[in-house]
Amino acid sequence: MNFADYVGKEYAPYSVEVEKGRIRFFAQSIGNDDPIHHDEAAAEAAGHRALPAPPTFGFTVMMEGGGLFNILTEMDIPAIKTVHGSQGFEYKKPIYAGDTITGHQTITNIYDKKGGALVFIEVENRLENGSGEDVCVLQSTVVVRNG
After folding, report:
1. Is residue 67 within 8 Å of residue 33, measured between CB atoms?
2. How many structural domains does the chain have?
3. pLDDT mean over 48-69
4. Is 70 inside a domain boundary?
5. pTM of the predicted model, to two decimals?
6. Which of 2-6, 83-87, 107-111 has the lowest mean pLDDT?
7. Do the beta carbons of residue 109 and residue 5 sit within 8 Å?
8. How far apart are CA 22 and CA 26, in angstroms?
9. Rounded-to-integer distance, Cα 137 and Cα 145, Å
């Protein structure tokens, strides 16, 4: 299989509805006790239109939308042969409860190391809100043990 053929591939967009309970649960799970993520009155008092999601919540949206796993499935790569190598976030605007977030996923680069024993798949997921505004861009690297 020639992994390089996948560089530049754009996948069908996916959409995820963001619910208040998901934001509260996520904030609690990561130990974020800032009231703006738990209490609507506190969020409003801080100038937000709804509960804002904590910064790394975009990863949850990406995973719920099938990001990364769809690539492995298409490339016929067993998940057991992979490890999540890196994750980056570029924040543009808050993600709010009630938003429908649409993700656009592209494979940006694929390269190998150790004579092809390790394959690195770099993926970008651009998330936008219902108004078409970018809210977060995620850069992920999946490392595949080849062979």
Report:
1. no
2. 1
3. 92
4. yes
5. 0.90
6. 2-6
7. no
8. 6
9. 26
Q: Coil, strand or helix: which one is 127?
A: strand
CA dihedral 105, 131, 100, 93 (to 10 degrees): 70
Residue 140's pLDDT is: 96
Nearest to 97 by CA among 140, 129, 133: 129
User: Residue 93 domain-assigned?
Assistant: yes
Percent of the chain, pLDDT > 90? 90
List the CATH number of the domain containing 63: 3.10.129.10
**Which range of residues forms the domain containing residue 72?**
3-17+52-145
Residue type, 93: K
Residues 101, 16: contact at Cβ < 8 Å?
yes
Q: How far apart are CA 147 and CA 137, in angstroms?
A: 32
Q: Determine how many CB atoms are found less than 10 A away from the CB of residue 22.
A: 18
23 within a domain of the structure (yes/no)? no
Strands (E), 76-117: 82-91, 100-113
